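Subject line: Sequence and fold of a protein, written as structure tokens
Area: Proteins and the way their chains fold up in space.
Start of record: The labelled sequence and token lines come straight after this line.
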Amino acid sequence: MPLLTIREFPDPILRQKAKEIDPLDPSLPALVRDMFETMYHADGVGLAANQIGLAVRVAVIDCSGSRDPAAKLVLINPVVLVTMGDVQEEEGCLSFPGLRGTARRGERAKVKAFGLDGQAFEIESGGLLGKALQHEIDHLNGRLFIDHLNLASRAAMEGKLKQMKRDAQPVGRSKARA
């Protein structure tokens, strides 16, 4: 199983809205397997396809850290139906290595998606899973966890985000002078 490259901010694909995919696409089982392997290797809880450079609506989540095979969740063409409540908690993202901030999310989320078997299902959860559901579906919609940060976290992170943008500029590209 090959490890996939996780795209980091400010890669433009992270802001791209992913397209729906046929839930019975024969390439999905291999993609999902590789996504889980990549996520576990990076010590993540979730991974969206655009984080590995594919603009398709596929995400994987495992809040058990690979300890419980039954906790593996595959989301194909997921949509958040409703969020309930409001919570501010620390959050991070594999596309922002080493960065964490206080993000505002729904306390619970209800999601509809397809599984690898092609069957539609709904899931509702709070806690870490509820946050992961919202986080990964946001990725598929081109939204990032930094879009949910409170002002203090955003201000504290601003210097690092600017540095990530500078580091991502192609070599030899001249900077505009003011």
Remarks:
- Strands lie at 46-48, 58-61, 73-84, 87-92, 100-105, 108-114, 120-126.
